[in-house]
Amino acid sequence: MNVSKEHLIYTGVGVLVLLILINSTKEVELKEISEDKVGVKNFDYTNLPTELKPPYRLAEGEQLPRPIRRNLNLQGLSIKPRFDNNDFQRTYKI
Amino acid sequence: MIFSVPTRYEELTLLVKVRTYEPQKIRIKVIDAQQPNTTFTDRYKTVNGESIFFVRMPVSAKEVLVYVYNEAYGNLEQGIDKSVEVVSITKEPLEKKLDVIDFSNPLVRSFVNFATRFSYNAGSLPSGNYVSDDKQFVIKYLTIIEDNGVEQTTPARIDIDSGIIEVSKRQFIEYTIPNRMAILLHEFSHIYLNDNVDDEVEADLNGLLIYLGLGYPRIEAFEVFAKTFMNNPTDENGMRFDRIKNFIDNFETYNTYLYD
Predict the structure, then answer these.
(1) Domain count within chain A
(2) pLDDT given at position B256
């Protein structure tokens, strides 16, 4: 049988799409564990992937980086917004 | 009931299907199996019959523990508590809308990376000053936020002059990872995305756009704003909550950048 290159490509793409669809949904085997098996373990940051490693913590006395470029306007100078917007203060924003 | 699910640090959506035989208040908690104080979701809903909890997880652990239990009886093993049954747990791809996030802005890229890493680890990080890889952002992780010796109710705030974000460890440790992200993105938006640094609603919506685009759960955003506003129920915060609810409800059809 004469199989053209084009057919092989289409078949390959079809198999790939099928594999993606099959693998996109996976039912997890239900593995129940008892409460006494749950506890604080020795957690080690070094095992985390790079994108989840903790950010760098400055050492005691190490200088903070200088302020960076930001959207500044006269209206906003000396404001510190707070997340809960309680007692609006100049300098901080919540 | 507690189920162990290997998630291999992948981004995913967990579908937890539960069954009850009459209306029951069912709580679901998904926590990191290794790292303390690291929760991916903590919520409940009243279930009558079969229902699915969708847990969106843009970040996950190597292994997570899924707690499912009836609020009325507490956490009991499957079979002992006959009022609720876990039918299945399924992993599906996470649906994201990255096109709504302006990743061409290097500040957005850097802050999302910084905030994600801080939020994931905040449950076990010691107090101190944390900086992003590019040294553009600083988070002062304080035991509490205080002014003149008085503890402040806010979980976080940003100094407009320096761009330094202060975070209350006492409050953050109790929050889920999505809650932490929503708060940090709000603070970031004030200075780096808002036209008016002073505008809370603008910061809410700019922050939420990134949060939702990354695929974080809608419900956790509602929750963190509701929790915060309950501590400070002003008319302005009531208005903010309405705007936030409207924005989240309409997110799927929202197609414009707020922070151009």
Answers:
(1) 1
(2) 47
Tell me, yes or no, whether A23 lies in a domain: no
What's the order of all strands across the beta sheet hosting B50-57?
A26-28, B84-92, B12-20, B50-57
Domain map (residue ranges) of chain B: 2-92, 98-253
The ipTM estimated for the assembled molecules is 0.85
Q: Do B137 and A68 touch (CB under 8 A)?
A: yes
CATH placement of domain B2-92: 2.60.40
The answer to whether the CB atoms of A56 and B133 lie below 8 A apart is yes
* Residues from chain B contacting residue A41 (CB–CB below 8 Å): 33-34
Chain B residues inside the 8 Å CB shell of A25: 90-92
**Does the residue A75 lie in any domain?**
no
Q: Do B34 and A81 touch (CB under 8 A)?
A: no
- Answer whether residue A91 is part of any domain: no
Chain B residues in contact with A51 (beta carbon < 8 A) = 113, 116-117
Name chain A contacts of B185, Cβ cutoff 8 Å. none
Selected residue of B200, B206, B237, B239 to mutate for chain A interface (largest A Cβ count, 10 A): B200
Q: Quick check: A93 and B189 in contact, CB under 8 A?
A: no
- Cβ atoms of B190 and B197 closer than 8 Å: yes
Nearby residues of A25 by Cβ (< 8 Å), 6 or more positions away: B90, B91, B92
For residue range B89-143, list pLDDT tens digits in order: 999 999 998 988 888 999 999 999 999 999 999 999 999 999 999 999 999 999 9
SS3 B259: coil
Among B58-62, B216-220, B238-242, whose mean pLDDT is lowest? B238-242
Range of A45's domain? 28-56
The reply to whether B197 touches chain A by the CB within 8 Å rule is: yes
How far is residue B130 from each of residues A50, A92, B135, B175, B192, measured CA to CA in Å? Answer: 16, 19, 9, 19, 19
Interval A49-83: pLDDT, tens: 999 999 999 998 888 887 565 555 544 455 566 66
A37 pLDDT exceeds 80? no
Considering only residues 13 to 42 of chain B, which have any Cβ-Cβ distance to chain A shorter than 8 Å?
A: 33-36
In a domain, A41, yes or no: yes
Among B117, B155, B161, beta carbon nearest to A55:
B117
Q: How far apart are CA B151 and CA B211, in angstroms?
A: 28
